[in-house]
Amino acid sequence: MSVTTLGVNVIAYRKDNQNYAMTCAWSTMSDFKEIVAFIGTQSETGKNLEVGMKLGYSTLKEGQEKIANIIGSSHSSENDKLANIEYEEEDGAIIIKNCYKASLCQLKAINTDVCGTPMYIFEVLKEKDFNGRPLLYNDMEEEKLL
């Protein structure tokens, strides 16, 4: 059991004609227009991000567990995780359709001196709220997240 409640967020973008997408729980708003995310060094999505790039940050809602499991179950080089998922793209940033909250962001900085895990700082350029309740990792079956 977790002592914190973490939302299921999707970070996604298109680079060099390839879609990159990952689920991310270790992220939060650090200011009104800033999101901080800790992304492990094994993440292909994280490795391919560059300062200045635009990306989508979608907070999934209840009922979108299947999307979370598809995106979180493999690396982006293994398959196009977004092939059967509805999304919108703007300037390379990918937003999952009908999510709880959608943010178009730009990567401001990557800090590798924090805790051994790179910290990515995203500036929120635009955001939109939708209906529903946010999907929480605590609400999902643990074995489906592995």
What attributes characterize this protein structure?
mainly beta, about 150 residues, about 40% strand, 2 helices, globular, Pnp Oxidase, Chain A, seven-stranded antiparallel β-sheet
Structure description:
This protein has 146 residues and is mainly beta. The chain has one domain: Electron Transport, Fmn-binding Protein, Chain A (Pnp Oxidase, Chain A). Helix content is 8%, strand content 41%. The chain contains 2 helices and 9 strands. The strands form 2 sheets. It has a 7-stranded antiparallel beta sheet. The protein has a two-stranded antiparallel sheet with strand order 6-7. The longest helix has 8 residues, at 65-72. It is globular, with a radius of gyration of 14 Å. 33% of the residues are buried.
The main β sheet shows up as:
7 strands, antiparallel
CATH architecture descriptor name:
Roll
Tell me the name of the CATH homologous superfamily. Electron Transport, Fmn-binding Protein, Chain A
- State the CATH class: Mainly Beta
Number of H/I helices: 2
Indicate the low-confidence ranges by residue numbers. 142-146
The helix/strand class is mainly beta
Strand content range:
35-45%
State the strand order across the main sheet.
2-1-5-8-9-4-3
Rounded mean pLDDT score: 87
Domain module tally: 1
How many β-strands, per DSSP?
Answer: 9
Shape: globular
Give a brief rundown of this model:
8% of the residues lie in helices and 41% in strands.
Protein topology:
Layout: E1 9-15, E2 18-24, E3 27-31, E4 34-38, H1 44-47, E5 54-59, H2 65-72, E6 87-90, E7 93-96, E8 101-111, E9 119-129
Antiparallel strand pairs: 1-2, 1-5, 3-4, 4-9, 5-8, 6-7, 8-9
